[in-house]
Design the sequence.
């Protein structure tokens, strides 16, 4: 019988910490590298404009999350560098621009990037509420963006004039020039500016939730109403054509806005967007980067989309939709885990080259470990794609892992519930499971009281429950097995049969044969060269391409805004 690897959340976090604290440039105060070319011979990283735009913000958040999960101060110097970058380059209307580096061109701010910046300021301000300059920048950014929107107040129809009964705010463009403001001859070139700009929604709502900022709430409402209405970006059933990362991030903000303001239609709109996106994805978490922009077989999975899926699922759970626990579990332990670079053994390195001109060649094989792909296929990471490792994804995924980490065990009233079958040591208890090799899920109590274990469909109906190995009866309540009260140090457990289940499904235009053990994918056919995913059988040596051969003679690709 095969023995399979167990999901290891802490290992994912440790690898991410490695990437965040090593794929940086000390010459430029720990400025991150977005553009990493592991397919080149030798591999290298080089700076691009976005390093000092969204990356210093998202990498700040990611590193904070990793340090908190690992209870470590390692990387504090890098974190301080990110903070220094964040406090530089502020300009008109409270917007953050980027420094003038040798590799930058048009000096501008984009509202899409302000979503990342505002999110980072939210987290930083919550950690340091007495930081006066930070508070000023945070408030000025919100008020500056509010002052730049066009407010739509009247619908002028052939049958008469009709005022809008809710605020409707539209950003005039997706680019704001540092020296020229709105220049409508210049755009990012991505298109769909309505949804790209609207990623500010979720951080705006968080600013209201955390700090009671009414201007943020007003701008959030107006932004949400514009996208849901006048933009015509979304269908009534959540359908859209375009960028999944932006759309799911917007949907997450909608659900949170609805919950905080008791507005059910916002929650319902966010849910249909999420459900439509899930219908375009695989059951184990592969998601397209774009919907209907390319033929299905040309699509890749940007790991940022997986972050958004997890965060949106958590927000929907908070609204009472407990069925999304299964999405969080499947996506986290399967495609999200697989799309992280676990080894640099296939990366070609030239140790003789010194870092220069915004390029680095040093120890790329070691530094790349922990990054996430922007080019995942269900069964492989495409090494020929220019974003086979994407700097944006390492900034977003650890934020979602922190949510997973914090919610493996939760307390609701007097009951402590194990929500996710992941090995973990938590202040509320220690979780140990046998998955995917055998069906056992146990929690050792660190506090006396009532404990529960969430049920999943794949656990079946032949359940045996015990406390310290002694059979006990557990009560089914709201999809959980609730155990009799226990003392500190006692262990509750549920055991059940676990056997492989083989299913077929279609994703990316391909029919896949998926072998499941519980919620773990232990094999995926057809397999994918060169960087094959789902090599989970411990008895079989893993296959990786030899150093320098993973991409063949693939040409270097320039990181254009169009491709991002």
Sequence:
């Amino acid at each position: 019988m095969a023995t399979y690897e167990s999901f290891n959340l802490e290992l994912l976090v440790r690898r991410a910490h490695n990437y965040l604290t090593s794929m940086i440039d000390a010459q430029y105060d720990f400025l991150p590298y977005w553009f990493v070319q592991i397919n080149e011979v030798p591999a290298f990283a080089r700076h691009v404009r976005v390093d000092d735009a969204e990356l210093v913000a998202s990498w700040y958040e990611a590193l904070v999350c990793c340090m908190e999960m690992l209870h470590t101060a390692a990387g504090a110097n890098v974190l301080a560098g990110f903070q220094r970058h964040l406090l530089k380059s502020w300009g008109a209307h409270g917007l953050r621009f980027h420094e003038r580096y040798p590799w930058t061109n048009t000096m501008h701010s984009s509202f899409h990037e302000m979503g990342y910046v505002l999110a980072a300021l939210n987290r930083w301000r919550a950690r340091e509420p007495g930081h006066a300059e930070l508070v000023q920048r945070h408030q000025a950014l919100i008020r500056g963006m509010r002052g730049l929107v066009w407010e739509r107040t009247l619908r002028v129809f052939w049958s008469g004039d009709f005022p809008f009964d809710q605020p409707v705010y539209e950003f005039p463009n997706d680019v704001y020039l540092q020296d020229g403001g709105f220049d409508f001859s210049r755009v990012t070139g991505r298109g769909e500016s309505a949804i790209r700009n609207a990623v500010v929604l979720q951080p705006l709502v968080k600013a209201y939730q955390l700090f009671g900022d009414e201007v943020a709430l007003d701008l959030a409402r107006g932004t949400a109403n514009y996208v849901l209405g006048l933009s015509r970006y979304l269908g009534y059933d959540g359908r859209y054509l375009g960028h999944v990362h932006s759309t799911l991030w917007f949907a997450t903000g909608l659900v949170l806005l609805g919950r905080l303001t008791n507005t059910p239609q916002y929650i319902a709109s966010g849910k249909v967007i999420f459900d439509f996106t899930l219908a375009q994805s695989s059951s184990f978490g592969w998601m397209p980067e774009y919907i209907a922009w390319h033929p299905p077989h040309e699509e890749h999975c940007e790991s940022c989309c997986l972050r958004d899926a997890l965060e949106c699922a958590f927000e929907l759970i908070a609204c009472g939709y407990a069925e999304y626990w299964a999405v969080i579990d499947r996506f986290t332990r399967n495609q999200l885990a697989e799309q992280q670079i676990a080894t640099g053994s296939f990366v070609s390195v030239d140790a003789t080259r010194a870092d220069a001109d915004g390029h680095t060649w040093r120890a790329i094989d070691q530094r790349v470990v922990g990054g996430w792909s922007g080019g995942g296929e269900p069964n492989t990471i495409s090494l020929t794609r220019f974003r086979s490792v994407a700097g944006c994804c390492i900034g977003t995924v650890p934020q979602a892992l922190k949510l997973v980490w914090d919610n493996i065990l939760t307390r609701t009233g007097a009951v402590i519930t194990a929500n996710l079958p992941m090995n973990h040591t938590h202040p509320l208890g220690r979780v140990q499971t046998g998955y995917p090799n055998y069906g056992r899920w146990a929690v050792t109590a660190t506090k006396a009281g009532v404990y529960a274990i969430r049920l999943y469909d794949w656990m079946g109906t032949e359940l045996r429950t015990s406390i310290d190995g002694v059979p006990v009866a557990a009560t089914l309540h709201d999809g959980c097995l609730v155990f009799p009260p226990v003392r500190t140090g006692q262990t509750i457990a549920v055991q059940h049969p676990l056997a492989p289940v083989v299913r077929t499904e279609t994703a990316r235009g391909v029919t896949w044969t998926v072998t499941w053990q519980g919620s773990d994918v232990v094999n995926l056919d057809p397999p994918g060269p060169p960087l094959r995913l789902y090599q989970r059988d411990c008895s079989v040596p893993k296959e990786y391409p030899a150093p320098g051969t993973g991409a063949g003679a693939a040409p270097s690709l320039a990181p254009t805004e169009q491709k991002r």
